[in-house]
Amino acid sequence: TITVGVLALQGAFIEHVNLLKQAVGQDSAEWEFIEVRTPQELARCDGLVLPGGESTTMSLVAARSNLLEPLREFVKVLRKPTWGTCAGLILLAESANRTKKGGQELVGGLDVRVNRNHFGRQAESFQAPLNLPFLGGTAEPFPAVFIRAPIVECILPHHKGIQVDEVDREDTVVAPSRPTKDAVAEAATADNVEVMATLSGPAARIATQSRNISPDEEIGDVIAVRQGNVFGTSFHPELTGDARIHAWWLRQVQAAVNKRNKLGQQ
Ligand code: GLN
């Protein structure tokens, strides 16, 4: 069995568990999905989802539950497959801006800076049909739900510890750099950040109608990224009935587990 956890401290965790179950359907015997609230539960997981919600709250509760360090180890040292949606993406960023509500401690793992609440607060949510190339070229657009969503503002210089001048702004929170002595972590820094999806075309126009700023038409706002085993989306697939991204991500988890088992046998 492959065990996949959903961080269940705050936010839309039940929705993720439901869609994960929907995604595996008939093959459910091979998978176990658990809610994670303690370091012991985290230690059982082969993969982890960080749900949407409120990242400041989630981070505070994680700190109080003694989960922050175990989460950093899970993501940055063990490099087990991890997917963050919305608030979860914020926590997985190495750098984020503070909001009026303040900053928070980040887990990190993705060498990106995110801009929280990018689409403003006037009309804080919208749904837009997205083309997600990783679901396959002919896939139907994905009904993506954005709620006070972050975007990936920039990819940080490839690093062993962030080059702080690049991001040293007063409004910035930065995740503690990964332990550089660790061989696994060293290898992991070699992974590049891949842009998996941008907000462009019709989806960008819908976004523009509901926010205060105009979209970056040239490149499109970056709303999904992957770096090795760490994946993040600005939007909430768990709030739709569409399990395609969950199914895709579980295939990545499966591949990572197979790879680890193979290495273990050598
Ligand atoms: N804006 C929220 C935050 O900063 C994220 C919103 C969400 O997850 N829907 O944590």
UniProtKB/TrEMBL annotation:
<feature type="binding site">
    <location>
        <begin position="147"/>
        <end position="148"/>
    </location>
    <ligand>
        <name>L-glutamine</name>
    </ligand>
</feature>
<feature type="binding site">
    <location>
        <position position="116"/>
    </location>
    <ligand>
        <name>L-glutamine</name>
    </ligand>
</feature>
<feature type="binding site">
    <location>
        <begin position="53"/>
        <end position="55"/>
    </location>
    <ligand>
        <name>L-glutamine</name>
    </ligand>
</feature>
<dbReference type="GO" id="GO:1903600">
    <property type="term" value="C:glutaminase complex"/>
</dbReference>
<dbReference type="GO" id="GO:0005829">
    <property type="term" value="C:cytosol"/>
</dbReference>
<dbReference type="GO" id="GO:0008614">
    <property type="term" value="P:pyridoxine metabolic process"/>
</dbReference>
<dbReference type="Pfam" id="PF01174">
    <property type="entry name" value="SNO"/>
</dbReference>
<keyword id="KW-0378">Hydrolase</keyword>
<keyword id="KW-0456">Lyase</keyword>
<dbReference type="InterPro" id="IPR002161">
    <property type="entry name" value="PdxT/SNO"/>
</dbReference>
<keyword id="KW-0315">Glutamine amidotransferase</keyword>
<dbReference type="GO" id="GO:0016829">
    <property type="term" value="F:lyase activity"/>
</dbReference>
<dbReference type="InterPro" id="IPR029062">
    <property type="entry name" value="Class_I_gatase-like"/>
</dbReference>
<dbReference type="GO" id="GO:0042823">
    <property type="term" value="P:pyridoxal phosphate biosynthetic process"/>
</dbReference>
<dbReference type="InterPro" id="IPR021196">
    <property type="entry name" value="PdxT/SNO_CS"/>
</dbReference>
<feature type="active site" description="Nucleophile">
    <location>
        <position position="86"/>
    </location>
</feature>
<comment type="similarity">
    <text>Belongs to the glutaminase PdxT/SNO family.</text>
</comment>
<feature type="active site" description="Charge relay system">
    <location>
        <position position="236"/>
    </location>
</feature>
<dbReference type="GO" id="GO:0004359">
    <property type="term" value="F:glutaminase activity"/>
</dbReference>
<protein>
    <recommendedName>
        <fullName>glutaminase</fullName>
        <ecNumber>3.5.1.2</ecNumber>
    </recommendedName>
</protein>
<feature type="active site" description="Charge relay system">
    <location>
        <position position="238"/>
    </location>
</feature>
